[in-house]
Specification:
Number of strands: 30
Number of helices: 27
Number of domains: 5
Strand content: 15-25%
Structural class: alpha+beta
Helix content: 25-40%
Largest sheet: 5 strands, parallel
Distance between the termini: 98 Å
Radius of gyration: 36 Å
Shape: elongated
Length: 853
């Protein structure tokens, strides 16, 4: 293509709109015009080419259209998708696509090889050559091209035919050195440096000591090191190695890509990768923007989007609380008052709906700080005073890290970051934002693949690097028409983009390859779990749910109280209730009238402002908890009692697939659906765990919905007669339960046994009588549908004397009750409960008659 003549007219025909044939390829120019708020249309005069955007955010259209501009015929498609029913649609899967979002008034260009024979089905042989936005300056001819910053002038297509050269670039901004990577560089971990780059060699590496053969090393502020080595060919040349080499995998670079070594105006250096001369910051921003819009489609700005208020309102309320709670203590300069105010601030509830404590500093860290000794409280108060007085400077941060490391127990690195960032942001949200180590590592790593937190607390240099990235991100958001009010908006953008990511295999692979510092302010995250505890009544399913929930939410407490008896149980229940109060545990009971609209979302009637009846979409308990979990790093638990009593297909609807662990948000096979009422895309977060209880006497496991059975693991909760290890008047209570259940299992099956909880209070004869009279006998009546003969078999009444039987019969003389015309049997037995038997120990011993000792 490069040798073909290029028209001199830029705005004239055929450059403004139309097809230009260059040898075996075609350049297609289209002008994007906005039509209302609903869609974008490409305008193409003189042919039948057109497309309609199906998604106003991504501009990607699944409709493949024909361009009939003469012979041969060419194709253009926005994305790979099935063909919609249209007379001029052609049945080919992929032709080419734009990787960037075209803006109103721009002229996107796609260059394609000519189709071989469209009508015979060979359209998929089309090969994409170039994607180019003429309002931006391409620096290289390649198979894929994304947006690059320039002066914004529309350039002729000739610019797309020039190849970039690997030379240092001097601009009005940062000084940048670009090094092209070769196969050898990737394999050996070295980057060849042009010998003419004496400025680079002298300014960054210094001259190696030729006489001694020692290598000169320069260490970046972020910890990366590069080393000058004379073993490269030619005098004055050098190679870069050391920590840059392991970064190749993380950077995802390959032969032909470039590594940029950038000297910022403040004298700091950073490393970026350009993949085929692509700006990694821009690539990262595009990915973050796509993820953000997937969560908030149609987003127009931080100041007017009600959906984002859920994310930002509590943070701004926290700023207000900082002024009311902590600032007066800072003015007093009394360390103990500062510590007390800090704990109060960390625990204050904020948020318009369901107010909760802040989650920047994890609750475990808050609990640790609240239990400090008096001396450590003073030390922490002094550290906070020094940090805020020093406004986050290097010395102030290092002093804060040292002081918090000397606490007993010491505050770990991730906790130091979260606490220091919280305080600095609340003091000055124009410069700082909240840092959660895991999320910010991923978010900032997309913008700068070399970014990572050092081992140890936050340093001044680290904050400076974060500020450079965040400021650049704020400028980029402003370019897209989303100017952030402060760094709280910037951090919220990053948080939403990362917290709702739908899984990224490349990122997961990178995280496995690198040694990631443990985020100490977060609990160890369990893999998402769906568990049902099943068994007959009284086997401790609800009791066991407390332990199972704490096994997920607070495993340390569960382990610490193991084997401590009744006192430990009270502690566990207290913690369970506290988590329920915090909203991290929700409880719901399924029943036959419970529906999707109660569980997920539905239309609910309410009185309008004028008094008229209005209908609005309201979230159900499951969707509410999912939303809360998506805004937190902590695990959440939904307990579904009597899960088998509800119509599972009706209640879960399309979400039955999304609750699978592998289909959860952020997992390898993550899926999302569009909810039918709100029309919002939705995925189940991985930090939400489902716990169900199931009474097998109501419905057996075999009768459960197959879709539910495949997506849950089932833990049987059988009766435990061994827990009833006491005697009452010579009656072995545990053996009594075992004997009853053996008979019931023969007559009905194991789904209808009696749980040990029915007899846990039977410590004496009155307690035993109460359990049998009020609980066990009514349960047997329900089990056997008042078949008194079979109930008597279970109680072994036929083997007892009449006075010890629980159930007795009396003959009815029917001829005295009815007239002869009733034609009833002359004598009928009537069953009744013998109340006196409950007070006799012999009645219970009689149940065991015939049982082995």
């Amino acid at each position: 293509m490069g040798g073909l003549p290029v028209p001199t007219e830029i705005y004239g025909t055929p450059w403004a709109d139309g097809i230009l044939e260059l040898g075996n390829a075609v350049l297609l120019f289209v002008t994007l015009e906005k039509e209302g708020e609903a869609s974008y249309l490409d305008v193409f005069d003189g042919t039948d080419f057109y497309w309609e955007s199906q998604n106003r955010n991504s501009q990607n259209s699944p409709i493949i259209r024909r361009i009939s501009g003469g012979s041969p015929t060419y194709l253009f498609a926005r994305m790979r998708a099935k063909v919609r029913g249209a007379s001029n649609a052609v049945p080919f899967v992929y032709c080419g696509r734009l990787d960037f979002v075209a803006m109103d008034g721009e002229h996107p260009v796609t260059c394609l090889f000519a189709a071989v024979d469209i009508e015979s089905g060979h359209g998929d042989s089309l090969t994409e050559i170039l994607q180019w936005r003429p309002s931006l300056s391409p620096s290289e001819f390649s198979a894929r091209q994304v947006r690059l910053k320039s002066d914004g002038k529309i350039l002729p297509p000739a610019a797309a035919c020039s190849f970039a050269t690997a030379t240092p670039t001097v601009a009005t901004g940062p000084l940048t050195y670009e090094v092209v990577l070769t196969d050898g560089a990737i394999r050996n971990g070295y980057i060849s440096v042009d010998p003419n780059w004496s400025g680079f060699d002298a300014a960054m590496l210094g001259r190696p000591d030729v006489a001694s053969g020692r290598e000169a090393t320069f260490t970046f502020s972020d910890g990366y090191q590069i080393t000058s080595d004379l073993r490269a060919s030619g005098p004055g040349s050098a190679r870069i190695r050391a920590r840059v080499a392991p970064a190749f995998r993380r950077l995802g670079v390959a032969a032909g890509d470039s590594l940029l070594i950038i000297q910022e105006t403040n004298g700091q250096y950073r490393i970026e990768a350009r993949k085929g001369s692509r700006d990694t910051f821009e690539l990262g921003y595009v990915r973050l923007r796509e993820r953000f819009l997937a969560r908030f489609p149609g987003f127009t700005g931080f100041s007017n989007d009600q959906r984002l208020l859920r994310e930002t309102s509590y943070k701004r309320q926290l700023v207000e609380q900082y002024g009311a709670i902590l600032r007066p203590a800072l003015v007093s300069k009394q360390p103990d008052e500062v510590w007390s105010a800090l704990i109060k601030l960390l625990r204050v509830r904020v948020g318009a709906e369901n107010p909760q404590p802040q989650n920047v500093v994890g609750w475990r860290i808050v609990a640790q700080l609240a239990e400090l000794s008096e001396d450590d409280r003073v030390s922490l108060g002094d550290a906070v005073l020094s940090l805020l007085a020093g406004q986050g400077g290097v010395a102030a941060l290092e002093a804060f890290n040292e002081s918090s490391s000397n606490l007993s127990p010491p505050l770990q690195a991730a906790g130091q970051r979260s606490l220091s960032s919280l305080l600095l942001t609340l003091e000055d949200s124009e410069r700082y934002f909240f840092i959660k180590t895991g999320q910010m590592r991923r978010a900032l790593g997309l913008l700068d693949p070399t970014f990572d937190f050092r081992k140890g607390g936050m340093t001044g240099e680290e904050w400076e690097r974060i500020r450079v990235l965040s400021r650049r991100l704020a400028d980029r958001l402003s370019e897209d028409g989303w100017p952030p009010a402060d760094m709280i908006d910037v951090q919220s953008f990053l948080w939403v983009a990362i917290a709702y990511e739908q899984g990224d295999g490349a990122e997961a692979e990178e995280q496995e390859d690198e040694a990631v510092e443990q985020d100490d302010d977060m609990p160890v995250m369990h893999a998402p779990s769906n568990t049902i505890l099943y068994g007959p009544p009284g086997t401790g399913k609800t009791y066991g749910v407390v332990d199972k929930a704490l096994e997920i939410l607070d495993p340390e407490l569960l382990a610490a109280t193991k084997g401590q008896g009744a006192g430990a149980r009270a502690t566990l229940k207290q913690r369970f209730d506290a988590l329920h109060e915090e909203g991290r545990i929700r409880f719901v009971t399924f029943h036959q009238s419970f529906a999707y609209e109660d569980f997920v979302e539905g239309l609910k009637a309410r009185a309008g402002t004028s008094g008229a009846l209005e209908y609005g979409v309201e979230n159900g308990v499951f969707l509410e908890l999912c939303i809360d979990a998506q805004h937190s790093d902590l695990p959440y638990v939904l307990i579904i009692d009597e899960i088998n009593r509800g119509n599972i297909a009706r209640i879960f609807g399309e979400l039955i697939t999304l609750i699978e662990p592998s289909k959860r948000q952020g997992m390898g096979e993550a899926l999302s659906v569009r909810l039918p009422y709100s029309k919002q895309d939705f995925a189940v977060p991985a930090n939400l765990h489902l716990l169900g209880t199931m009474n097998t006497a109501d419905r057996s496991l075999a009768a459960m919905d197959v879709a539910l059975r495949r997506r849950f693991r089932f833990i049987e909760m059988p009766p435990q007669p061994e827990l009833l290890d006491w005697d009452v008047d010579g009656i072995r209570v545990g053996e009594l339960l075992r004997t009853l259940n053996t008979r019931i299992e023969v007559l009905l099956g194991r789904d209808h046994l009696i749980g040990h909880a029915y007899l846990m209070g039977a410590k004496d004869l009155p307690g035993l009588a109460e359990a049998f009279r009020l609980r066990i006998l009514p349960l047997l009546q329900e089990y056997f549908f008042e078949d008194w003969r079979r109930i008597a078999w279970v109680l072994n009444d036929d083997a007892k004397p009449q006075g010890e039987r629980f159930l007795r019969q009396r003959e009815l003389q029917l001829n005295r009750l009815f007239v002869p015309e009733a034609q009833l049997a002359p004598d009928t037995a009537n069953w009744y409960i013998h109340e006196a038997a409950f007070e006799q120990a012999a009645s219970y011993r009689g149940i065991l008659v015939g049982q082995a000792d």
